[in-house]
Every structure is written in structure tokens, then in C-alpha cells.
Amino acid sequence: MRFRLARPEERDVVENLWAYCFEPKEHPFFRWYFANMYKPENVLLGLDGDNVVCVTHLNQYKLSLRSKILPVSYIVGLATHPAARRGGIGGMLLAAALEEMRRRGQAVHILMPSRAGFYQQYGYELYCHQWRDTVNLDDLRPLTDKTVRFGFVDSSDRWRYLAEVYEKYTADLSGYAVRDEESWRRHIDAQLAEGNIVVVFNGDEPIAYSFYQLGAPTIRCSEFVYATYQGKRGLLEYFYNHRSQGEALQWNEAMRDDGYRFYPDGKKGHETMPFMTGRIVDVKAALETVTYGKNVNEKITFTVTDPIASWNNGTFTLNVQAGKGKVTLADGTDVAPTAAVPAGTLALLVFGTMNAKELRYYEKLTATDEEVQKLTHLFPKTECYINEWY
Fold first, then answer.
1. In the chain, what is the straight-line distance between the N-terminal and C-terminal CA atoms, in Å?
2. Three-state secondary-structure class, residue 88
């Protein structure tokens, strides 16, 4: 097997494998994706001889991680031809993708798994879950707000209404995608190809919006974002008014939301949804890139094991002074490691999904009480959120 980036003339090969594994070519999303997102320089091919047997897309994003904006690759469309499956090619493709991301200077990356178990063996862990709520439309009534007004986005020229709400919603979160005008226009155009966008206003101020689809008994929202609780209640008011067009509403939101406590029937329709994995591309780069508290001064030596990125295997010393990290790779004789951290566990620490005490409880890391305290000080738990689907 050999791996390389796609050439412009190989678009048909990439499209054919996507269509075989995911949406057919006539599907609206397929047409939109290959018209607006596809870039051969961000597509990695795996070849057996002259035949392309696997492919993945490295879509480029900016991620806000502990208030630091980082360039990342978002792996989507990882596909293997059925004739080549069950031969470990998926792991080889992921390893090649990590090498390409490292070449680009990226410290971490993200991937939405269809099944987390497949990726966990390769050092991926879920850093972001969401709440998924499914509520009968009739049951929304006590949760609504009739004082708001509604507007609609039918053009990407109105992206600023959504950006204002999104920035307020994510202001104190971590792990989310930073969206500029170009990315907002892509999001809006993709949604309008398949559905609708509503905006909730308090006077002239946008306070919530939703991407949604009609045509089925359950109205599904692919994005449900609000700057205030009034905004959320306004969205529920809007969908309550669709009782003649559906039976239930389904939406996702950040795990920090406690609104489920006030639902008329909390015994059903409220569940967690595994959403996104995060992974360390390069240990040294990641630990020297993320921000630490300004008053943090800690030093810790730990061993990292990585199943597919050999450059991440070894003993590292992280020295943080005045909030700035410096990493050195130990040679095994100068200092003994006091903690053992698999690559997937390190990602959960860096992203802030769990703290060191929790991870040790679940047997995801080995460390003394003193080292657990150091790691907790270095990597305090955060609230993570992301809602990018491709």
C-alpha cells in the first residue's frame, strides 16, 4: 500500500467510492459537497498497485481549543472498497493521514465516527457528546415563548444573523469550530439545498436559530443554537406551530444545557449522542500549542503510547512556566516517568473532556496522586461543543 494526495484528474474515482459507500450522486448533499467542499489537495488516497482502494477527506477547519484557535483537519468520508476490507487498511489510512497532518504543522484533529469502537483502537476518543431531545409537538406548549418574532434565512448573504447567535452560544465553550464568512456561507448553502433556516428575534436582536427539515413525522433540526433561554423557548414556540406538519421535534444541543429538567415528560426522548472524536497528531506540538493558566507552573514526566503514530511514542517532560509549555523528549536515562498516558487519554485531557482523576478512575491513565493533581492543574475540565457534520 502507498498513500498520496489526490490529483485533479482523479475526481471521478473519489466520487465513485463516496457514492458507493455514502450518498448516491443524485443526492442533493452529494452534489453540494463535491461542488463546494471537494479539494483534491485535501483528499488522501490509498493505492494497491495502480488501484485506489481507500480514500479519506481532510477538510480544513479552525478549532477553538481552550481559547486558542488552532488549524485542524476534520476527517470525513473515510471509505474502503469492499474488496479490500478486513485487511487493516483503515488503520493504515489513518496513520498516513496523521503523517500528512503533521507535515502541515497541525497538532490535533477531529473525526466524527460512525462507530467509536473502530477508531478507539487507533487512539481516538469521543471528546464531545450532545443531548438529543425528541419531544411530541403537543408537549412543547409549556416550554414556549410567544413574545418573540421570527425571520428566515433564504440566502447566505444573511449569515451575520446566525454568526451573532453562534458566537454568543460558544463564548465560554471549547472544542468548537470557528466560523468565518466563507464557512458560514457554505453552511447556509448546504442547509438550503435540503431544508430551511429560521431565526428568532427579540425586537431587532437575533437570539436563536435552527436548521431543520420538514416532510417526515419527526421534524429534525441539524443545528439548534440560542444565545438566551428566551431564544430556546422561541424556537420551541416556532416548532409548536407546526403541529399540522409533524408529530414530534428532534434537536441536539450542548451537554451543558439543563433545560430537560423542565420538560413535561422527562422519562423519554432525552438521550446522549456520541458526536465527535479528537486526537493528538503530535504530542510535542499539542502540548506546546495549547494555553495553560497564566499562574500555572508545573513539571511532569509521562510516557505516551500511540498505536499508529510512532513519533508520539516515548517519555516526555512537560514544563509549564507562567502558563507557557515546553516539551522535551527524554532518552530514558535522565528522568523516570511518573505517569503513563495513552494517546487517546491525552486527547481527552488536552480537549478538556475529562480531568485526570476521572480518567484514572476509568483506568485510562496510570499516575500517582501527586501526578493526578499536577495533570488536573494543567488540564482543568472544560465544557466541549461542536456541531460540524462534514
1. 27
2. coil
Q: Residue 173 in 3-state DSSP?
A: coil
Grid coordinates representing 304? Answer: 505516551
β-pairing verdict for 108-111 and 68-80: parallel
- Contact 248/134 with Cβ under 8 angstroms? yes
pLDDT along the chain (390 residues), means of 10: 94 94 91 93 93 94 95 94 73 96 98 92 96 95 96 96 97 96 94 94 97 97 97 98 96 93 84 96 97 91 96 95 91 72 96 97 95 95 95
**Closest listed residue to residue 74, CA positions, set 58, 85, 86, 89:** 58
Read off the C-alpha cell for 74.
Answer: 476534520
> To which residue does cell 487512539 refer?
123
Task: For the chain, count helices (H), then strands (E).
Answer: 11, 18
Contact 109, 61 (CB under 8 A): no
> Is the model's pTM score more than 0.70?
yes
| Distance between CA atoms of residues 286 and 376, nearest Å | 17
Interatomic CA distance for residues 103 and 246, integer angstroms:
49
The overall longest dimension of the chain from CA atoms, in Å, is: 72
Residues 6+ apart with CB under 8 A from 47: 1, 2, 3, 4, 53
Among the listed residues 198, 220, 219, the one whose alpha carbon sits nearest the alpha carbon of residue 210: 198
